[in-house]
Amino acid sequence: MNRLLAGGALAVFITAMAVIALTSVGSNSSETRPTTTAATTKPVTRPRPPKPPPKPARLELVAVGPYDPDGDGTENDAEVKNAVDGNASTFWSTEHYTHGFFKPGVGIVVDAGKKRSITKVTVGTDASGSKAEIQLADRPTGPYRTVSPDRALQPGTTGFTLKRGSTGRYILVWLTALPSATGEGRITEIRAIGR
Prior knowledge:
This protein has one helix at 2-26, and strands spanning 57-58, 62-67, 92-93, 106-125, 131-137, 145-146, 151-152, 156-161, 167-177, 186-187, 189-194. By secondary structure, it is mostly beta strands. The protein has a single domain (57-194), classed as Jelly Rolls (Sandwich). The radius of gyration is 43 Å and the shape is rod-shaped.
């Protein structure tokens, strides 16, 4: 009986070995299977690109007053607000220079609210004969910096493209010549484009 048990145990062992061998051959055991492990990496943070500067837009302007450093300091002060009221039928005018305009200029100052980059100023008038240039400053009393060429004002609007990089809070429309027939310059509207 011991032999019978030993033979039975040997038969079970050989059968088990055969099953293991056949299973290993069927699964192509010569190849190794890749093992995966979960990586513990931190997410990569990339810096955000800087925001582009705001696009130039029309600036809200507030009237400050006339600018007459070579005269008596007044030039129809009560009319200054008409140059920024959005109504082209109202205007600011200089005093009457019936005997000639014998000073470097006279003008009107408007406030852009804070120091800004200003790219263009448009000046409206209802009469020809005046010439103007645009100047900027950080204070209403100056000193002012010329940022455009001197140009003739045409009835309707005249645009002044300012020098690149022009900044300031206060805009001076500086009249350098007046119509000889009337001796009076008139500005109906001032508009500015900037950031």
